[in-house]
Design goal:
The chain is an alpha/beta fold. The mean pLDDT is about 100. Helix 5 packs across helix 9 (about 290-300), helix 6 (about 200-215) packs antiparallel against helix 7 (about 235-245) and helix 8 (about 260-275) crosses helix 12. Helices cover about 35% and strands about 25% of the residues. The chain is elongated. The chain folds into 2 domains: about 5-245, 4-Layer Sandwich (Metallo-beta-lactamase, Chain A); about 250-395, Flavodoxin domain (Rossmann fold). The strands form 5 sheets. The protein has a 7-stranded mixed beta sheet with strand order 1-2-7-8-9-10-11. The chain has a 5-stranded mixed beta sheet with strand order 12-13-14-15-16, with no helix packed on it. It has 12 helices and 21 strands. The structure holds MU-OXO-diiron. MU-OXO-diiron binds near residues 81, 83, 84 and 224.
Length: about 400
């Protein structure tokens, strides 16, 4: 079923209510997602993006509610990741003479995914294509979040089709921001930013400045996932500016794994030390916690405290994916710490500290270790460790 954004501009995408993992199993999507594609009917008929291939029949059915897909003249690939270009071959089979508009890097990625000699037109920032009553203006947006991403601005209708930027994995019955649960919407927008866009925060800030400097009127921001921002559309731009600055809350996140509860007791004692300093914190038991939700909490916080017992002279495996994410996401303005129990060799704290240092998360103070089960003296050290970290958080 289609939705009209403005006269002659339609949402023709697909809502994926069942999706619970994205990028394979890399990213959890508790609230599903939507693959947004847009159709503009004018002297030339234009499709902006497609949908993930399993939803291609839905895309084609939606287009057919407005026009015969064979009448598509232009297909814009704002981004060639297959959640958006997966149905491109199906569309091109019906409209083989359509022009495929891409950025320079978009041509590379579209050809790389589909290996088809389509009729490409490469555009760059500032290029315009007239489609009748409207001009489409292109703005390259590399690393938001792939090198190939670009925005398409629909002049006259004042719609910025922003590809992945400003999106969320959020399946909803309504497509508009003023008709959905606000808490869920911003939670999903933040999770999306924290887990996907954080490493590119400097580029996000620069791109937003560049787009705002163009002083384009913006009535609607239409991303390629989730809801469309039509009420106060620039509110999500302001949120992105805030998130890109990565100014943390004065709080802490403790993430740990444990074999026989010793490291759990240490985690909770560290929390008591933080409380003594009036620093709020959350504790996550890594094996039963959603990694992407933990990353979202880490994104918001100042102190990241990681605990693991020593296991095979290393860490318990559940901690490693999180540390790998910390390395890749390149969080800024964090401080860190490590703790863990051990029975024999006791390397875990040193290993965690080394990894945090590699992630450019400086260690506040030497981590705490407890041999076997922690005794009162060990737990007192953990509380003191929590206090020291808490004091650093408040500075
Ligand atoms: Fe939604 Fe980068 O694809």
């Amino acid at each position: 079923m289609i939705t009209e954004l403005k006269r002659g501009v339609f949402w023709v995408g697909a809502v994926d209510w069942a999706l619970r993992h994205f990028h394979g199993h890399e990213l959890s999507t508790h609230r599903g997602s939507a693959y947004n594609a847009y159709l503009i009917t004018d002297e030339k008929n234009v499709l902006i993006d497609t949908v993930w291939a399993p939803f291609q029949e839905q895309l084609l059915a939606n287009i057919r509610e407005v026009i015969d897909p064979a009448k598509l003249d232009i297909i814009i690939v704002n981004h060639a990741e297959t959640d958006h270009s997966g149905s491109l071959p199906a569309v091109m089979r019906l409209a083989p003479n359509a022009t495929v508009v891409v950025s320079k890097r978009g041509r590379e990625s579209t050809e790389g995914h589909h290996h088809q000699a389509w009729n490409y037109k490469v555009v760059q920032t500032g290029d315009r294509i007239n489609i009748g009553k409207r001009d489409l203006v292109f703005i390259e947006a590399p690393m938001l979040h792939w090198p190939d991403n670009m925005f398409t601005y629909v002049a006259g209708d004042n719609i910025l089709m922003s590809s992945d930027a400003f999106g969320q994995h959020y399946a909803t019955a309504s497509h508009f921001n003023d008709e959905v649960d606000q808490q869920a919407l911003f939670q999903e927008a933040l999770k999306y930013y924290a887990n996907i866009l954080t490493p590119f925060s400097n580029m996000v800030a620069r791109k937003i400045d560049e787009v705002l400097a163009l002083k384009l009127p913006v009535d609607i921001i239409a991303p390629s996932h989730g809801i469309i921002w039509r009420k106060d559309p620039l509110q999500i731009v302001k949120k992105y500016q805030e998130w890109a600055a990565q100014v943390p809350e004065k709080s802490a996140v403790i993430v740990y794994d444990t074999m026989w509860e010793a490291t759990r007791l240490m985690a909770e004692a560290i929390g008591e030390g933080l409380t003594e300093e009036q620093v709020p914190y959350k504790i996550f038991y890594a094996p039963v916690s959603d990694r992407n939700d933990v990353i979202t909490e880490i994104f918001k916080t100042r102190a990241v405290i990681i605990g693991s017992p020593t296991f095979n002279q290393g860490l318990l495996p559940s901690i490693m994916p999180l540390l790998e994410d910390l390395k890749g996401l390149k969080f800024q303005n964090k401080i860190g710490g490590a703790f863990g129990s051990y029975g024999w060799s006791g390397e875990s704290v040193k290993i965690i500290q080394e990894i945090l240092a590699n992630c450019k998360i400086p260690i506040v103070t030497e981590g705490v270790r407890a041999k076997w089960q922690p005794i009162a003296e060990d737990l007192a050290k953990c509380r003191q460790f929590g206090k020291t970290v808490g004091q650093a958080v408040k500075k």
